[in-house]
Design a protein that fits this description.
The protein has 75 residues and is an all-alpha fold. The chain contains four helices and no strands. Helix 1 crosses helix 3.
């Protein structure tokens, strides 16, 4: 199975978490929900998983430690 570029994947995870927070802050906002759904779908496709939770777990595993995620944010 081909795996996505780590920098791209880290950026998508950061974006997902941002929109997740925004969607939880205003669950009635359809734009926020749609953005979160789009990012969930993208992560599922990239990681070959059926649910966002599984895709996030697979992405984090592919990226390695949480330190790698935070290190990518500085770039």
């Amino acid at each position: 199975m081909l795996l996505p570029d780590k920098a791209l994947l880290a950026a998508l995870l950061r974006r997902y978490r941002t929109w997740e927070r925004l969607a939880h802050a205003a669950p009635e906002d359809p734009v926020r929900r749609r953005r979160l759904d789009d990012l969930s779908y993208t992560l599922c496709v990239l990681m070959g998983q059926r649910t966002a939770r599984e895709a996030i777990r697979a992405a984090e595993s592919h990226l390695g430690s949480a330190g790698e995620l935070s290190g990518r944010q500085a770039q």
